[in-house]
Amino acid sequence: MASRPNRLSHRHQRHRSCGHRPPGAGTDINGVWALGRIGPDAKAALPVLESKMRQDAGRERVYAAGAVWAIGGENSEAAAIVKAALEDADAHVRTDAKNVLVESPDISSR
Fold it and tell me: Other CB atoms closer than 10 Å to residue 97's CB: what's the count?
């Protein structure tokens, strides 16, 4: 019996071919978001989150910036990243930036 191609693999290949990473690839967005929800008690994660905020792209970067703000307090670099994401070409990134602003509305005042 011939095996059928795995649909998930096909979708991942399609994303790779157009330069996008499939959801969940690389950084665990949910984990980053959860650290931000913990707030200042997750301070030990700040160095990793700051690195992700500076090095990752797209959705991962936005959520890392939001978590850095939520954990470490005011951070002008994090605020700038979230504000810039509101104008991103990717609708998912724009939506994520709006979600971060809902969680930390004081970012918009920076």
Answer: 25
Report CA torsion sign: 77, 79, 84, 85.
Answer: positive
Whose CA is closest to 98, among 76, 66, 52, 56?
A: 66
Q: Global pTM?
A: 0.71
The full set of domain ranges for the chain reads: 27-109
Q: What is the pLDDT along the chain (110 residues), one digit of tens a residue?
A: 554 444 444 444 444 444 444 444 445 788 998 999 999 999 999 999 999 999 888 899 999 999 999 999 888 999 999 999 999 999 999 999 999 999 887 777 76
Instruction: Give the helix, strand, coil percentages of the chain, each rounded to 5.
Output: 75, 0, 25
What is the rounded CA–CA span in Å between residue 44 and residue 86? 28
